[in-house]
Amino acid sequence: MKNYLLALTSLLFIGHQAIAQEVKFEEFDLDNGLHVILHQDNTAPVVITSVMYNVGGKDAGGTAEAPRTGFAHFFEHLLFEGSENIARGEFMKIIPANGGRFNANTSQDRTYYYEVFPSNKLELGLWLESERMLHPVIDQVGVDTQNEVVKEEKRQRYESPYGKIFETLGSNLFKVHPYKDPNIGFMKDLDASTLEEFNTYFKDYYGPNNAVLIVAGDINPSETKELVKKYFSEVKRGPEVVRNFQKETPITVTEKAKAYDKNIQIPAILAAYRTPGFGTKDAYILDMISSYLSGGKSSVLYKKLVDNQKQALAVQAVNISQKDYNIFAMFALPLGEVTLETLLAEIDEEVVEMQTNLISERDHQKLINQFENQFVNANSSIEGIAGSLATYYLLYDDVNLINKEIEIYRSITREDIQAVAKKYLSPNQRVEIEYLPQTDEQ
Q1: What is the DSSP string of 347-367?
Q2: Of the chain's two ends, which shows fewer C-beta atoms within 10 Å, N or C?
Q3: Cα separation, 118 vs 109, whole angstroms
Q4: Half-sphere exposure of 307 (CA within 13 A, CB side)
Q5: 3-state secondary structure 284-333
Q6: What is the mean pLDDT of the segment spanning 178-205?
Q7: Cβ within 8 Å of residue 243, ≥6 positions away
Q8: Higher pLDDT residue, 379 or 36?
Q9: Tell me, what's the pLDDT at 157?
């Protein structure tokens, strides 16, 4: 009876937690097409204002005859330059001077700006984001300044050891889709771009109808609605964004490639697969497969290659999330005289085991627990909730995934894992890349 009561108490506690973690939100649209999502949480005097634009690295600037890569990432920086009412360089001074902090980031699929303020500065946060959307100053001084900033960022990020791996994956997995180009772009494209091209890009992609505004935290929803209307209703609707990217031909025969990095001494092996974009159930299953293979020191590849057989310095399987196609990639660094071919064969052995036999019930439950934990942690802060609301609306077309996505992971069976491993992770569906130290001759 005592054990039964303990089990019942635990069940009730878990159920209470699940209810307590539900994220409530309210949505509405302005006449100009801006979608707005409000989330009220008055537990702390903090508010976040954020805007996610439906533009990313895959959206080239320039013209059809001379497309320019890296524009979305460039605009991540450029739109901090100032506006008609904010002097150059003042944007990033105003926020900390008012007790706030800010950041922005760009992926291949979207660009995200946010500010976190004391809740009595909500109106300031809305004004700043409306200024960015309504009338930023895009002039040659700002373009030249940010060009140097981006070049320095690229030197720091891409010229670090193994810093070109993501660029290498993209250029080898994609032939026609713009995912083939690095998110940060090629500097030759930015150098060749004109001021007119930058202004055209802003008009094409940064309209209110191509964005979502999130206001979350210590707010009064009715007052916040009026403030949103006050600052954003003036923004004119932009053109509708139409994308018609070419489809990739499926990989049916193993492709082999080599890439070189002057900043490394130890080679690496990469095995990369082009898989369904995020939002599909198969993508969720591939998330689980990557965690099963290398999610922590108790994962099968880490235990085998690093701990037991001492063949690898590091091993990783990742499912890189993108809207049109994901990248499932496996990476390993050899230890001592172990060859890259040996490492890949050992990795493949574990993949074949997944394709042949069901993973254990214990490992399956462990994966469920891991993803439940990740889900809770992702939405444990106002910043996390704001980012999730924006992402689920803009990229997944289902805001309520913030409350129900965990049910997708819970629904994944051992049979699902086996089937998806068979469907996507065969050698004839991948690119095998030797990532090698660059010598003077190369």
Answers
A1: HHHHHHHHHHSPPPHHHHHHH
A2: N
A3: 30
A4: 10
A5: HHHHHHHHHHHCCCCCHHHHHHHHHCCCEEEEEEEEECCCCEEEEEEEEE
A6: 95
A7: 59
A8: 36
A9: 85
pLDDT of residue 21: 72
Domain map (residue ranges) of the chain: 23-232, 255-437
CA dihedral 361, 363, 366, 370 (to 10 degrees): -130
Question: How far out from the chain centre does Cα 292 lie?
Answer: 21
Compute the average pLDDT of residues 209-219: 98
For 334-354, how does the pLDDT look when each residue is reduced to its tens digit (9 = 90+)?
999 999 999 999 999 999 999
Q: Which residue has the tokens 């409000």?
A: 38
The per-residue pLDDT for 50 is: 98
Q: Structure tokens of 60?
A: 């080239």
| Separation CA 177–CA 325 (nearest Å) | 9
- Distance, in Å, from the CA atom of 436 to the CA atom of 80, rounded to the nearest integer, reads 38
End-to-end CA separation in angstroms for the chain: 73
Query: How many angstroms separate the CA atoms of 376 and 21, rounded?
Result: 8
- Cβ-count burial 306-332 (b if 16+ within 10 Å, e if not): beeeebbebbbbbbbbbbbbbbbbbbb
- What's the topology of domain 255-437? Cytochrome Bc1 Complex; Chain A, domain 1 (3.30.830)
As a whole number of angstroms, the distance between CA 404 and CA 121 comes to 32
Beta bridge partners of 83: 136
What's this model's pTM, rounded to 2 decimal places? 0.92
Q: What is the DSSP string of 100-117?
A: -EEEEEE-SS-EEEEEEE
The architecture of the domain spanning 23-232 is 2-Layer Sandwich (3.30)
CA distance 361 to 367: 10
Query: Is the per-residue pLDDT at 12 higher than 70?
Result: no
Phi/psi at 257 (5° precision): -150, 165
Asked if the model's pLDDT at residue 7 lies above 90, the reply is no
Q: Which two tokens stand for residue 167?
A: 């660029």
